Each structure stands twice: as structure tokens, then as C-alpha cells.
């Protein structure tokens, strides 16, 4: 659950703390990625249903689980192409 997830990120060795929620991490780059969630920046759009995600990994998981696509063959910037989509 969410509380366990937050707890897993609350180790004393984590030195970067989100100022909007209890999330903390070991690297500044991970904190920057986390902040995209709070800022509502969802730059990765599903080409099948137009849902948007703030991390490429979340889009890949969505395409694999919801649309049953083999992901990825080619990824370029904010675009993601699967082998199924390339056959058009």
C-alpha cells in the first residue's frame, strides 16, 4: 500500500527530501523525476488512448498491461514505438 511505499523511501541514508510529501531519495535526479508528479508534467503520451504519464517506465507498463504491446523496440524522445505499432 501507499504507506509501505513511502516508508520504503524513508531510510536515513536518503538525503534528498521532497518538500511536498514524505518522499525522500538518495539522488537529486530521482528527486527531480519525483517532482514531475507534483508539477503535473506528464510528457509521455500513450499513442493508443492518449493517457499521459510522467515517466517513460509508467507508459511502458501501461502499454504492456493495458494494450498488450511488446515494448519497446524503438524509443525516441517523448515518442515510444512498439513492434506492433511499427507494422502499420
TrEMBL record:
Stretches assigned to coiled coil: none
InterPro entries: Znf_C2H2_sf, Znf_C2H2_type
Family annotation (SMART domains): ZnF_C2H2 (SM00355)
Keyword hit for Repeat: yes
Keywords for the protein's UniProt record, in alphabetical order: Metal-binding, Repeat, Zinc, Zinc-finger
Domain C2H2-type, first and last residues per copy: 16-43, 44-72
GO molecular function, one term: zinc ion binding
Protein name: C2H2-type domain-containing protein
Amino acid at each position: 500500500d501507499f504507506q509501505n511505499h513511502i516508508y520504503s523511501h524513508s531510510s536515513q541514508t536518503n538525503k534528498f527530501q521532497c518538500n511536498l510529501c514524505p518522499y525522500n531519495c538518495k539522488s537529486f535526479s530521482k528527486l527531480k523525476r519525483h517532482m514531475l508528479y507534483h508539477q503535473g508534467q506528464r510528457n509521455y503520451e500513450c499513442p493508443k488512448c492518449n493517457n499521459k504519464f510522467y515517466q517513460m517506465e509508467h507508459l511502458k507498463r501501461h502499454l504492456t498491461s493495458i494494450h498488450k504491446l511488446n515494448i519497446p523496440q524503438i524509443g525516441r524522445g517523448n515518442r515510444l514505438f512498439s513492434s506492433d505499432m511499427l507494422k502499420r
